[in-house]
Amino acid sequence: MELTIGDTAPDFEAQTTEGTIHFHEWLGDSWAVLFSHPKDFTPVCTTELGYMASIKPEFDRRNVKIIGLSVDSADDHEAWARDIEETQGTAPNYPLIGDPYLTVAKLYGMLPAGLEDEANGRTPADNQTVRNVFVIGPDKKIKLILVYPMTTGRNFDEVLRVIDSLQLTAAHKVSTPAQWRPGDDVIIAGSVSNDEAKELFGEWEEPKPYIRVVPDPSKVPA
């Protein structure tokens, strides 16, 4: 199953380190980051899980739930969590999905749907495509998909930046330019006519007719 931006995130029931969840029910009215791992006790993923735990308050502040997935059982995750706390200083403070039968990995297109193996006996290299980040909105739609190689740790500060952009552009008829950070100028969405833009934003800078620049509307006093 190949998922793309705009698709409904597949629902599932799974065991996690915080008990059984039904994904859509767990998501509720929040945003979510689902990030996946090819195997427990792998070095790069250990650093990622620890870092995500350390910056969880930043996700909480944005109404974003964090959930991890690794191609092993929830019981294995408990033992891994102790290593993560010992080596990274922070244990996972969010649920980790156990996926010993590769069910969720296949549901999200990270492994071939016809694969009949279980996690036992498979190596991280076998599961190397299970290195994804999915950002999912309160409407249960996929807003972002990132896929990383095993050798490259993920930049979760960038994931936060993208979420800031996604939340801003969901609330206002704007787009964010390259290297944008909250508070920087934004671009009026191309779907907005000049007449509507005047009602929404008043004046704007226009280096080209298709580039209409305004201040970040979330920072403009009402």
Overall geometry: elongated
Instruction: Output the helix-strand order.
Output: EEHEHHEHEHEEHEEHEE
Q: Sheet with the most strands?
A: 5 strands, mixed
CATH superfamily of the largest domain: Glutaredoxin
Integer-rounded radius of gyration? 20 Å
Beta-strand percentage range? 15-25%
Helix count from the secondary structure assignment? 7
Mean pLDDT: 95
The CATH class of the largest domain, by name, is Alpha Beta
What can you see in these coordinates?
This protein has two domains: 141 residues, 3-Layer(aba) Sandwich (Glutaredoxin), CATH 3.40.30; 43 residues, 2-Layer Sandwich (Antioxidant, Horf6, Chain A, domain 2), CATH 3.30.1020.10. It is elongated and about 60 Å long. Strands 5-4-3-6-7 form a five-stranded mixed sheet. The model has no long low-confidence stretch (mean pLDDT 95). The chain is built from seven helices and eleven strands. Strand 1 and strand 2 form a beta hairpin.
List the helices and strands and how they pair.
Elements: E1 13-16, E2 19-22, H1 23-27, E3 31-37, H2 43-54, H3 56-61, E4 64-70, H4 74-88, E5 96-98, H5 103-107, E6 132-136, E7 142-147, H6 156-171, E8 174-175, E9 186-188, H7 194-201, E10 205-208, E11 211-214
Parallel strand pairs: 3-4, 4-5
Antiparallel strand pairs: 1-2, 3-6, 6-7, 8-9, 9-11, 10-11
Helix pairs in contact: 2-4
